[in-house]
Specification:
The chain is of the alpha/beta class. It is built from eleven helices and eight strands. This is Alpha/beta fold hydrolase.
């Protein structure tokens, strides 16, 4: 694995911690609820940024979804919101269920129904053109949503460094060489689920002590995700949820941006799932970059300033406008 991949994965995190870039002005708390078979209603939270003057002229909205163990304040989410603000596009940065201590339940990589509940929220009814941008596992959830019952207002979607085969992805990140990344992801997940257990001890057949002892992603999925969400095992979860086999069902123009040097979502775990991918999936492999981190000079060929977020937004708007015109 190229050292540059590690650099572009770690450097944006360090920059975010040191400089603490602020979110766009006008960010307001947002929430909705989604039905839950185990606990009744579960609340989903977010931050909605409105450019001056309110909704954009074409009543468009960008929804951004964080990755595994992340939040709507993660280092890769803020630049997306700022890029949207720069072009006058409202942006909703959501927290998936359980994040930020706001729910009695927690998400998994295939829970696209939460995205559907966000889009269908009455508070977003004014937006007639919706774009969705998901990072890492959030990209995986975005792909699953785009292959399901998509709201007609959703015009185009994008996924950045998304896994497509959860089984092979878990095997790759559980290798000793990726211990640093695995520890970072598990730390975020443990904090989230510990909060759920404090509020609802019967949510999982696992103690706090056992939760903290988990050291691999596969063990996490076996002990935490599978029993809570009704899967027979971690492998059953991976087989039933992975986005790769669902790509042929994509219902909207979809952009997939992957890094050749990604040290977390290894290219070799992604490429097999792309064989025979549909025409509506535009796959871009980037030579320079890491996991959800890319040089500011990134150019996808769009008529927009360079940089991942600005180029991706231009792609979304262009394809969304074309879909809206047909």
């Amino acid at each position: 694995m190229s050292l540059s991949g590690h650099y572009w994965t770690i450097a944006p995190v360090v920059h975010h911690v040191v400089r603490r870039p602020s979110a766009p002005p006008g960010s307001a708390r947002w929430s909705t609820v989604v039905a839950n078979e185990a606990f009744g209603e579960v609340r989903l939270s977010g931050l909605l940024s409105q450019p001056e003057g309110g909704a954009s002229r074409d009543r468009a909205l960008l929804i951004v979804i964080h990755g595994l163990g992340g939040t709507n304040e993660s280092h890769y989410v803020i630049p997306a919101a700022r890029a949207a603000h720069a072009i006058g596009l409202p942006c909703l940065r959501i927290n998936l269920r359980g994040v930020a201590g706001g729910a009695d339940d927690f998400y998994h990589a295939g829970l696209w129904q939460d995205v559907a509940a966000v889009v269908a929220s009455p508070s977003l009814a004014e937006y007639t053109n919706i774009y969705i941008l998901g990072y890492s596992m959030g990209g995986h959830v975005t792909l699953r949503y785009a292959a399901a019952e998509v709201d007609p207002r959703v015009r185009a979607v994008a996924a950045i460094c998304a896994p497509l085969d959860l089984d092979s992805s878990a095997a790759a990140i559980d290798r000793p060489a990726r211990a640093l990344y695995r520890h970072h992801v598990l730390a975020g997940l443990k904090g989230m689920v510990a909060g759920v257990l404090r509020r609802r001890r019967q949510a999982l057949p696992i103690s706090f002590t056992s939760l903290l002892r988990i050291t691999t992603l596969r063990e996490w999925d076996r002990q935490v995700v599978a029993p809570r969400h009704g899967f027979a095992s971690a492998e059953d979860y991976y087989a039933r949820v992975s986005a790769g086999p669902k790509l042929g069902l994509l219902q909207r123009p979809t952009l997939l941006v992957q890094s050749e040097a990604d040290p977390m979502v290894i290219p070799g775990t992604v490429r097999p799932a792309l064989v025979g991918s549909p025409a509506q999936l535009d796959v871009r492999w980037i030579d320079r970059g890491g996991h959800v981190g890319f040089p500011s000079t990134l150019d996808l060929g769009e008529r927009a300033p360079r940089g991942l977020e600005r180029q991706v937004l231009a792609w979304l708007v262009r394809h969304g406008s074309a879909a809206n015109a047909t």
